[in-house]
Amino acid sequence: MKIVDVKDVKIADTVHKVAVKKLFNFEHATIVHIELKPGEALKRHLTPVDAFFYVLEGIGIVEIGKERKEIHKDQLIFSPAKISHILANESDDKFRFLVIKTPTPTSETKIL
After folding, report:
1. Radius of gyration of the chain (CA)
2. DSSP reduced 3-state for 6
3. Rounded CA separation 36/103 (Å)
4. String of b and e for 76-85 (b: at least 16 CB within 10 Å)?
5. How many angstroms separate the Cα of 7 from the Cα of each of 19, 24, 37, 50, 71?
6. Separation between Cα atoms, residue 48 and residue 80, nearest integer Å
7. Contact 105/25 with Cβ under 8 angstroms?
8. pLDDT for the residue 108
9. What is the C-alpha to C-alpha distance for residues 55 and 85, in angstroms, rounded to an integer?
10. Is the pTM here over 0.90, yes or no?
11. Residues in contact with 98: Cβ distance below 8 Å, sequence separation at least 6, in sequence order
C-alpha cells in the first residue's frame, strides 16, 4: 500500500508558476494536485494524453477548446488529448483540484 499526503509533497517548479504537487506517477496514470489562489490560472496548454479534472474545493473556470464553464466541488471534467485548455480561479477563495492524466504522458505538455 502507498499513501501520499498532499501536505508532505513539495510544490513543483513548473511553467505555470502556481502550486502544483505531483502526487503519483506510474505508466497508466499521473495524478497531480493543483491549488490556485484568487486571480491565478494555468497557462493555456494542451496535453498529449486525456486528462480529467476533479474539483476538491472552491469554484473555478475551465476552458476546453472553445467551451468555457464554471466548475464546482465534486465535479469531474474530461479534457481530451491535444485540445487546448486552461483552468482559472476568478473567485475570492482558493480553488483546488486533482488532474488525472491517462496514460502517463511520454512527451511534454505544450504551452500555447
Report:
1. 13
2. helix
3. 25
4. ebebeeeebb
5. 12, 14, 16, 26, 24
6. 9
7. no
8. 86
9. 16
10. yes
11. 23, 31, 32, 33, 34, 53, 54, 56
Cell of 42: 494555468
Cell numbers at 85, concatenated: 485548455
Q: Rounded to whole angstroms, how far apart are CA atoms 33 and 68?
A: 21
Spatial separation of the C-alpha atoms in residues 90 and 70, rounded to whole Å: 10
Which one-letter amino acid corresponds to residue 22?
K
- Cα-based distances in Å from 20 to 9, 66, 70, 97, 104: 10, 25, 21, 10, 16
The amino acid occupying position 17 is K
Q: Which of 80, 78, 57, 61 is nearest to 69 (CA)?
A: 61
In tens, the pLDDT along 26-74 reads 999 999 999 999 999 999 999 999 999 999 999 999 999 999 999 999 9
Tens digits of residue pLDDT in 11-24: 999 999 999 999 99
> How far is residue 28 from each of residues 40, 64, 94, 106, 109, measured CA to CA in Å?
29, 23, 30, 11, 17
